[in-house]
Design brief:
By secondary structure, the protein is an all-alpha fold. The protein has a domain of about 130 residues. The chain is built from 8 helices and no strands. Helix 1 crosses helix 5 and helix 7 packs across helix 8. It is flat.
Length: about 190
């Protein structure tokens, strides 16, 4: 793996783990007292922009391969990767929920790619967890209010909060495992 790909791999895995740690903390801390803050968080435009920009930047190398015609030009793709989140800031509701979902989709793809590219031990387990989280990202992108609804349910039902919190921590642990084994196996 080239140095820049390696740095991108580490950055993406840290971001992915961070997203799932955030989701775990949000579900564990959900209560009737702070549900209003969590609901507003799913619509926060600044956080959404901060998540969407690197997520779309991670999509540029992948889009360059499959894009038709003029879209294969990296200048056009980078302009779109910057312009689309900025326009979304002004026009899209539930921007943070959509940005998290989109980031989870690309991170799920990339963790599978890196697991097999680096021939990591446990690649099959990593793939299964990534598929499940990727499906969750696709579902969340299609129904962005689902993250808000998940926080509401977690505030009412402690069992659900614990289940979702621990599930998110397991996925974050898989990202950490991928980082550690990626570093060890790349030497």
């Amino acid at each position: 793996m080239k140095f820049m790909e390696y740095c991108r791999f580490i950055f993406e895995m840290v971001c992915g783990g961070g997203i799932f740690v955030f989701l775990a903390a949000a579900h564990f801390s959900a209560s009737e007292k702070n549900i209003a803050k969590l609901e507003k968080l799913t619509r926060n435009r600044i956080i959404g922009l901060l998540i969407a920009l690197p997520a779309l930047a991670a999509c540029v190398p992948h889009a360059q391969i499959v894009a038709p015609g003029i879209l294969q030009n990296p200048v056009v793709l980078w302009a779109l990767a910057i312009t689309i989140p900025v326009l979304s800031y002004f026009y899209i509701d539930f921007f943070t929920a959509r940005a998290i979902s989109g980031a989870v989709i690309i991170l799920s793809y990339d963790i599978i790619h890196y697991a097999y590219d680096c021939q990591l031990p446990g690649a099959a387990v990593i793939t299964i967890v990534a598929w499940i989280s990727g499906f969750g990202g696709i579902w969340g992108s299609g129904k962005p209010c689902a993250l808000r609804d998940s926080f509401r349910l977690a505030a009412r039902k402690p069992l659900y909060a614990n289940l979702m919190g621990w599930a998110a921590l397991v996925v974050a642990a898989i990202y950490l495992f991928t980082i550690i084994t990626g570093i060890i196996c790349s030497r």
